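Worked example 2:
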Amino acid sequence: MPLLLPPDPARRLALYALIVCVLAVAAAVVSFTRGSWLGIVWVLLAGLSSNMCWYYVKRGRDARRESVTG
């Protein structure tokens, strides 16, 4: 039976940030296709949430690596 890791808060936050990123990209596409320049705000939000996703992925990976070695 495989060993299941307990849920990691960093992993959950990374998933939430990824969902926000995907939704922001979809909103930007819809906004630009309708001719609205408000899509720029959605693109900026997608960039921010993408960076947050990578940050939490790295933070969770480093925490797991530290708990194994230390």
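The helical segments are 9-33, 39-69. The radius of gyration is 16 Å.
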